[in-house]
Amino acid sequence: MIEEMSRIVRTITNLIYGFIIVYGFYVIVHGHLTPGGGFQGGAIVASAFALLLVTYGNKQTQNFLVKDFLSYLESVGLVLFISFAFLGLGATFFYNFISNSGGLFGSPAVIGINPGNLNTGGTVTLMNIAVGIEVLAALGVIVLTMSAAAEIIQKKEKP
Amino acid sequence: MIGNFPFVAVIILFGLGIYTLIYKKNLIKIAIGITLIENGANLFLITLGYRKGAVAPIYTQAPEGVKMVLPTPQALTLTSIVIGVATTALLLSLAMIIYKKYGTLNTDEIRRLRG
Amino acid sequence: MSSILMHAPALVIALPLLAAFITPVIGRFNRKAISWFVAFILGLTLLLTLLIARHILSNGSLIYVFGASEVGLTLPSGYTVPIRIIFHIDGMGIFMGLITAVVSFLAAVYSISFMEQHSGLEKYYTLLLLLATGMFGMEFTGDIFNFFVFLEIASIASVALIAFRSTLFDEPAEAGFKYMVVSSIAALMVLFAVGLFYGQYGVLNMATIAKVLQFTHLDKIALILLLTVLAMKAGSVPMHMWTPDAYSEAPAAITMVLVAASQASLYALFRVAFSLYNVTLNTLTVGWIIIILGVLSMFIGVTMAIIQKDIKRLMAYHAISQTGYMLLGVGVGLAVLANPVALEKFGIKAMEGGIFHIMNHAMYKGLLFLTAGALFYRTGTRDLNKMGGLAHNMFYTTIFFIIGAAAIAGIPPFNGFASKLIIYESVYQFNPLLSIIAMLVSILTLASFVKVFHSAFLGPKLEQYKSVQEVPKSMVVAMATLACIIVFFGLFPDLIVKYIVHPAVMALINQAQYTATILGGM
Predict the structure, then answer these.
(1) What is the per-residue pLDDT across B21-78, written as a single tens digit (0 to 9) for each?
(2) Could you tell me the pLDDT band of residue C520, with boundaries at 50, 70 and 90?
(3) Which of A9, C118, C187, C243 could bond C235 through an S-S bridge, CB–CB 3.0 to 4.6 Å?
(4) Is the whole-model pTM more than 0.90?
């Protein structure tokens, strides 16, 4: 029988994990203005998943984070990334065809010191979002699988 | 002279990593040794871009009239860290499978492939 | 048509990558369709590579810039910096690309039947496509950090494939762990050398580094690091410990692709020695180091192979020994690079022999590993002492094994004879002793394959193998294609050398042309 974590740990986790996920998405979307980007934001969201796993154990977290759905989300993120690369094939592969052209994320890029405009960036921002989705799903699957195996081994060792 | 200290740290990290790889027998310690070498390589890449008295290479709300460090090594290091995450995840998963099949994590006893 | 050709270098990487990401989605709906889809995509990649090869062999090298329209960025002051990530395909790059395309397509065709009963099949094909992407990227790129990234992609994909059958057997996980440690160290040392180049010269483009290189002490350290670790990944002797384990525990089709991946690292070694450094280094010394590595690999590989009982481990040691032939041929070419008279007389011929041997080795070693996989698929064992009398049951496999064994031993009219004869003749003019050692190793190779043939195929029919039949059709098709290529290369070697191998050798030797294509106006 895996013993539960204390009341303090469970309360803090319940309050905080939502804020961590929002902070992760902030880092993903603002990748072209502030330090961060796809991989870093995805890793932050995956650390929120790891926090849930530590507090509640593997069985209960599996009801909340379904492994099949995360695996599917990873494929969606990757296909989105590679299709943005293909769409630029009019000029060359990976060409930034949205920047400086108006539309979503298409305002002209400002060179030099500026207060920062979220609407710039072109395919860089969209690819950041795709990579962020993919990384949070992939690291989530890794963490879930490893903790499941660790609990099986732990149960086997303690007679 | 004090400006050379990051490079000395890189050499120390490499040395510790290679010492761990050669002399330690536990599979998890070998994985830690590889992570140490990878951290040394990443530190080396970032230190190459440093310029004296410069700030971080971000245009958003940066201070006026100062130099910035080179941003390219930071992109190289980011790629290398991501690759390191994948490598470490794979090494640890293989160590878990070996523990399940062989019952031990000691390299002296995991020697079924010989000759 | 010409717009396909213009984008073909990127499509060769992008199509397998897109297919790798779509494969899990297809796998949810229909499990059997995955293998045919992957074989189709790799067949398309083979067609694209043949298209690029036809263009390059008549018009010269091809450059593809990612994300912009020209290689350099022109600053407001008029100064142009070569900063874009490019694919620079010349004769040598497309030579290795052809090998990779053929080998990965045949691996997918073979795996249609070989891996049919296995669970988790969509992950296998995703990893196979990622491995193909990594190998193509290693061979086509013109940017040295991009080379490191593709090297790591190929390494991680191949480790996961080696350890793929760890649900059924115990040993693949151990082999995978050893290979992962070795390739991690190799890739991190390559990253360290990239850092050394970037810190001194501020560029990552291979042609630009070749142009501005002054041979400082740090460049010597980078050269030693790169030569050592790329030889380690190619499986040459002082660092060959991972090769028998990794090649024997992987599924048979993957071993064939792993051989091509090791040769991609060998290609990188030649690219560093010839195009990055060329005559700035002391070519006689470095050439002799490569020759010594080659001779050691040949000799130790074949002597360790004779005593093996496991058929795939024996073939893995032979792979080490044949890598020695390639190192010997190209090492002789490097040793006389600064000496134009000797280069004209036998240097170019030695390099032609070594590089032609790369393609021949991929073909016949691939065929041999596929036949070993066929034997394992029907009998369930890899131990030579337990097999026997299988020629009665498996007719096609026996014929293909005879073709492969004759090719590796250097018997005419198969392709091994052609490349080995070129190596013997040219190396004899450099130093007769090396040529005699090479011929001795060839005789020992023949001896060990006669032993394998006798153990596995000849002899009376055994009781436990009474119901063994021929292997399924897709495996026979894959093996037959390789056998046809072997026979064709053996009957017309001068055509192959004139149209495919000679442009590759001239592209390696001619460093000025390598840099001028990119830095034309800068």
Answers:
(1) 999 999 999 999 999 999 999 999 999 988 888 888 888 888 888 888 888 999 999 9
(2) low
(3) C243
(4) yes
Q: Name residues whose C-beta falls within 8 Å of residue C210's C-beta, 6 or more positions apart in sequence.
A: C275, C276, C277, C278, C511, C514, C515
CB contact under 8 A, C181 and B30: yes
Chain A residue with CA closest to C28: the answer is A72
Structure token pair of residue B20? 């761990």
Tell me whether residues A93 and C18 touch, CB distance under 8 A: no
Residue C196 lies in a domain: no
Lowest model confidence (mean pLDDT) among B11-20, B47-56, C461-470, C478-487: C461-470
Q: Say if C116 falls within a structural domain.
A: no
Mean pLDDT of A61-84: 90
What is the domain count for chain C? 1
Q: Tell me the shortest Cα–Cα distance from B94 to chain A, in angstroms.
A: 11
Which other chains touch chain B, taking contact as 3+ CB pairs less than 8 Å apart?
Answer: A, C
pLDDT at C484 over 90: yes
Q: Which pLDDT tens digit goes with each residue over A115-136?
A: 778 888 888 899 999 999 999 9
ipTM (interface predicted TM): 0.96
Residue C463 lies in domain: 282-491
Please name the residue of chain B whose CA is at the shortest distance from the CA of residue C304.
B115
In angstroms, rounded to a whole number, what is the distance separating the alpha carbons of residues C260 and C269?
14
Residue C517 belongs to a domain: no
CA distance A4 to C392: 65
B36 and chain C: CB distance < 8 Å anywhere?
A: no
Cβ neighbours for C125, distance < 8 A, ≥ 6 positions apart = C20, C23, C34, C35, C38, C108, C111
Three-class SS state of C64: strand
- Taking residue A70's Cβ as centre, other Cβ atoms within 10 Å add up to 17
Domains of chain B, each with CATH number or no CATH: 2-102 (1.10.287)
Q: What is the pLDDT of residue C521?
A: 54
Rounded to 5 degrees, what are φ and ψ at B108? -70, -25
